[in-house]
Amino acid sequence: MALIRFIVQLTASSTVLMDMDWEKYQQLWIFLGSLTMAAHYTMVLLNLVIALQRLLYTAYPSTASSLMNKSVAKTIIFIIGMLFIGIVIIYNTEIVGILWIDSMMSWKIVPGRSRILVRVLKKVSNYAIVVANSLIYVVLFLILIKRKILSLKRNREIRMTIQVVCMVVCEMLFCLYWELCNLNGLGVWDFVLTETSCLLFYDVLILPYLILNGQIRGELKSLVKSTSNGYHRRTSNFLL
Predict the structure, then answer these.
(1) Which domain, by its residues, includes 139?
(2) Residue 22 phi/psi, 5° resolution?
(3) In a domain? residue 151
(4) What is the pLDDT of residue 217?
(5) Do residues 99 and 107 lie in contact, with contact meaning Cβ atoms separated by under 8 Å?
(6) Does residue 148 fall inside a structural domain?
(7) Which InterPro entries does the entry mention (predicted)?
(8) Mean pLDDT throughout 32-60?
(9) How would you class 52 by CB atoms within 10 Å of its CB: exposed for 0-12, middle for 13-18, buried for 19 or more?
(10) Where are the alpha helices (DSSP H) in the chain?
(11) In a domain, 229, yes or no
(12) I need a labelling partner for 153 at 20 to 30 A (CA). Which of 36, 47, 85, 238 fits?
């Protein structure tokens, strides 16, 4: 979802260089906006699903192992995929929608469509992160501490705890910023801060794991190394 959001933002930004007629391609700007919102809401939903899964495995490990089979996982992925498509469709109707404004390099609600519904959906997603997600992880840590599973005496436990805490705290800070600060201003810095905060939100979900998780870092290094070796082999064969 973060990759989809990044690609959509990059595509929308690149249209400025193409000097495309903004009035002529209204439907394209609205479609890109629908993908942006669908990626955001789906990302929030995925975070909640992952948090609930972790809580279930922590509270009821044997029950969770028997329930969470491949069929259940595929069903969950299918439902989330359908919700993504549903959000895209809804944001392309006359009820609600946002569109890309190339002169401002930002997104705005489509004139004549429901501003209230857009704001309600944003508030629901923000509170889902701040309240539900945070509460789930607090309960999870309390269960671990009560069962003396989490002692914070081993480096691996400390790293994993820091990863989760960093992710949750950063999510809360972003959502509180979106809720408490005025993001509807029309100044240059208003647009810059709004777009930057939205893009950074996806980064903070990944960066703690990339920085603190040695296994993921090792896998990424192996991937980069194998890709680099493959490129050098192809280059050598071409030169020969």
Answers:
(1) 1-215
(2) -65, -40
(3) yes
(4) 60
(5) yes
(6) yes
(7) 7TM_GPCR_serpentine_rcpt_Srt
(8) 86
(9) middle
(10) 2-17, 26-59, 61-67, 70-90, 115-127, 134-146, 155-180, 188-212, 214-239
(11) no
(12) 47
Q: How many residues does the chain have?
A: 240
Give 186 or 25, the one with higher predicted confidence.
25
Q: Tell me if 226 is assigned to some domain.
A: no
Distance, CA of 185 to CA of 175 (rounded, Å)? 18
Average pLDDT (160-179) is 78
Task: Identify the residue whose tokens are 């004549």.
Answer: 112
Rg (CA), the chain: 21
Other residues' Cβ atoms within 10 Å of the Cβ of residue 70: 7
DSSP string, 18-56: TT--TTTTHHHHHHHHHHHHHHHHHHHHHHHHHHHHHHH
Place of tokens 């401002």: 104
The total domain count for the chain is 1
Which two tokens mark 130?
């701040």
